[in-house]
Amino acid sequence: RNVEAWFGDFYAVKGINVTYQEKTINAIIGPSGCGKSTYLRCLNRIHEEIEGAKTSGEVLLEGKNIYDKRVDVVDVRRRIGMVFQKPNPFPSMSIFDNVVAGLRLQGVTKKSILLETAETCLKKAALWDEVKDKINNLGTSLSGGQQQRLCIARALAVNPPVLLMDEPTSALDPIATSKIEEL
User: Fold this and answer.
1) pTM of structure
2) What is the residue-averaged pLDDT of the chain?
3) DSSP category for residue 48
């Protein structure tokens, strides 16, 4: 409701009012520089991490405003996952550890659950067949398109009720793009 965002004095997102229905896929379309990425970052409170940035309005998830001062920002970001346009695997972590990082932060330690989740999510992200024999290699050892699919697998692993994706297939080849679109 009335979501607005600024970078210092620059008014980047102006009065967005929209309702998204559960279990739907929605696209935000507009020219380069019109505020699409900024708007997405407002939907999971990442915009406020940028120095000089601010946001106003309400973003309701399950009837609760994620901008309420009593809301745990970490929980918001766990429940509203984000895949950025540019891949951002954790540089010091293996492919496996990248995928299960969120689960570990939630206290999941059972190896069988971590292994099953990693395989399932890497399959959903159309990456498993390419990495199953090198799962312990660094995530940054992968190509750009593979890193992007790794980040998608990582976002899926915590099973967020909402998943925001900012041009997630821009670095992918047509076959990988179609697999992600199917997902």
Assistant:
1) 0.88
2) 93
3) G
